[in-house]
Amino acid sequence: MGMQSVSIIGVGRIGGALAIALSRAGFAVDMLVHRDDSTAKLIAPHLPNTTRFVEWSSRQSPFESDIVLITTADPDIASVAEALPDQLKKGSVVMHTSGSLSSESLSALADAGHFTAAMHPLVSVSDAISGADNFSGAFFCIEGSDEALKEARGIVQALGGRAFSIETSKKTLYHAAAVTACGHLVALIDIAIEMLSKCGIDKAAAKEILLPLITSTIANLEKESPEQALTGSFARLDADAIERHLSAIDRDMSDQVKDVYLLLGERSLELAALNNENAAGVQKVRELISIAKRKPG
Description:
By secondary structure, the protein is an alpha/beta fold. The protein has helices at 13-24, 38-43, 74-83, 107-111, 128-131, 146-158, 171-181, 183-197, 203-223, 226-229, 239-252, 255-275, 279-294; strands at residues 5-9, 28-34, 52-55, 67-70, 93-96, 115-121, 139-144, 162-165.
């Protein structure tokens, strides 16, 4: 079997990083289609001189590649897909890399007889050149038609990543999970920094103080289940300490901070109950949370 060829539409951070990584992994990177050539100019020295850089608006030549990746911004994916059916080889494989959109956003291509999938790398890419190294070891969420999924798995394997599949209908929930684990985690840590800053510590120092605790928690999660990794007052069912926390939060913090503490406290209590046979202790903390939720700040 010859070298597989790939074209990429949308040469930003992800598209540029994939172009470099796929070229290194032995794919022939045929055509890179862009609207803005700033990333294209940066990555050109890292690609073979056989790769063609083409502007989207002026592009006349059809795609000869086996696989076409759409790595544009999410709002452009469907309109790019609608413009493509007649410019592709018969039965081409087309994938996009969006986290929140499913392969259904490529329905114009599926209807025209092409094979479609979504292939989302669960990894942070801040720039195209350093990002080319980030796919190795990363998980990729893939969903779509069987033929396209076979190609997606081949790409992920070649990049040194790990693929997992979900139902197309669950793609948005998958993305919400990723946002909760990443963006919402940062927001939660920001709340903890704000609480510590109310103790007279500046925010930069507060972050520095909390980071070893956060990294040790993540290290515990790598080895243990969430219920085993849970530590602190809720894990110990220490109702007195939780009551003191709530008094301090009422005194010094906003209602929003209290709401977050209580909501996550309820979830922590569910985890603690899985690990603790002290039903009376669980009930005591549950009642404490219930009273605090009804009581205005």
